[in-house]
């Protein structure tokens, strides 16, 4: 199959949107699938819109009529995709347990090989197969259970949106440090059990390597007359499903599915997480981009969990710690204050009783967007580790 080309596509950034302009773009987002919103249309913020060459003039005109100014963030999307393509991979080098490193982006199989190698090398770690994706790929969780029964559990999820390559890259960076640098922080493994799913949407993620770098959804057959495949897996969860920020158009990037948990991958994750006893104290979702530290709920304005004050404070503290590493600014805010969107995994995690739940939107703020150069993986990992340790130390405070 021919690869999707983004020749001549540009990512346009609007000026800060008025309520009228954001409503117009929101409507456009839910009714047209020919332009792709990389950053959502939100009043008071700028939107990023990946626009095909034939629509550039008309979109700019339409925005100008509403008094919205436009700048070009990415001049040529295809050129950027080509420049940031992963290198051809060699087999793992002599004496190395895994091929994974953080100098480049790696596919689903390499992510699985990485967690399998960590499990093989540590008697306190194991692999839990949680089921297969729609296309039959293995979904595997790394279980790090040195702390043993009764200790607090933590669940880490990455890669739910296929094109957000920095998500599994940074999540694996953090998990490598957690496990291999045990001596630097023994309490992290001695007192907490960890469960890590590196690849929450294996088919979509694979498709971004083989066919379409900017694919977001799963790859399931939706029965769409237009042949549109897949569901937005982060709108497919069964908590306030379908209420806000979704589309029921099967070709939309934010199509939530016919019903909650229609996607087998989300069923697999749900069923696994429900086996964890005690209910995890912390659930974490890695996404990109925007540099945000988001806390629930996201399904509606003003829908805050009972303990939102401690969650909010921890998001602020973690963002401060992250900033201290490379001066990268993460904004700690409530998910719905960004834009309400129902059916996300973080809301569901909170709804089953997890005390702390975060979604971190990683680098950058739009210069490269989803097509983040690989030389930013390690610095992103370094700063996220600082935010991560802030959160883990808080969890440990209550274990002592």
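Q: What amino acid sequence fits the structure above?
A:
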């Amino acid at each position: 199959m021919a690869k999707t080309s983004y020749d001549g596509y540009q990512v346009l950034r609007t000026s800060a949107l008025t309520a009228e302009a954001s409503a117009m773009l929101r409507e456009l987002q839910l009714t047209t699938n020919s332009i792709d919103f990389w950053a959502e249309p939100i009043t008071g913020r700028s939107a990023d819109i990946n626009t095909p060459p034939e629509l550039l003039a008309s979109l700019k005109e339409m925005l100008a009529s509403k008094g919205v100014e436009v700048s070009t963030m990415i001049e040529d999307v295809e050129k950027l995709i080509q420049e940031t393509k992963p290198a051809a991979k060699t087999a793992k080098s002599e004496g190395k347990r895994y091929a994974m490193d953080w100098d480049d982006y790696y596919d689903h199989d390499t992510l699985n090989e990485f967690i399998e190698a960590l499990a093989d090398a540590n008697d306190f770690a194991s692999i839990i197969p949680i089921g297969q994706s729609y296309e039959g790929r293995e979904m595997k969780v790394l279980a790090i259970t040195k702390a043993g029964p009764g200790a607090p559990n933590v669940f880490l999820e990455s890669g739910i949106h296929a094109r957000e390559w920095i998500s599994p890259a940074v999540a694996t960076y953090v998990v490598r440090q957690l496990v291999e640098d045990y001596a630097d922080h023994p309490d992290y493994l001695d007192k907490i059990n960890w469960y890590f799913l590196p690849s929450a949407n294996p088919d979509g993620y694979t498709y971004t390597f083989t066919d379409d770098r900017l694919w977001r959804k799963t790859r399931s057959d939706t029965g769409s007359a237009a042949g549109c495949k897949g569901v937005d897996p982060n709108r497919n969860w069964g908590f306030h499903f379908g209420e806000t920020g979704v589309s029921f158009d099967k070709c939309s990037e934010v199509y939530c599915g016919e019903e909650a948990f229609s996607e087998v991958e989300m069923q697999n994750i749900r069923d696994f997480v429900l086996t964890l006893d005690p209910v995890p104290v912390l659930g974490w979702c890695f996404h990109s981009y925007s540099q945000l530290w988001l806390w629930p709920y996201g399904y509606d304005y003003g829908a805050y969990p009972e303990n939102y004050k401690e969650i909010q404070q921890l998001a602020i503290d973690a963002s401060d710690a992250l900033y201290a590493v490379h001066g990268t600014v993460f904004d700690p805010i409530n998910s719905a204050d960004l834009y309400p969107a129902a059916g996300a995994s973080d809301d569901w995690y909170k709804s089953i009783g997890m005390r702390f739940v975060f979604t971190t939107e990683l680098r950058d703020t739009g210069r490269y967007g989803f097509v983040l150069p690989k030389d930013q993986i390690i610095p992103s990992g370094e700063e996220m580790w600082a935010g991560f340790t802030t959160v883990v130390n808080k969890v440990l405070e209550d274990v002592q």
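Q: And what stands out in the fold?
A: Residues 377-397 form the longest helix (21 residues).
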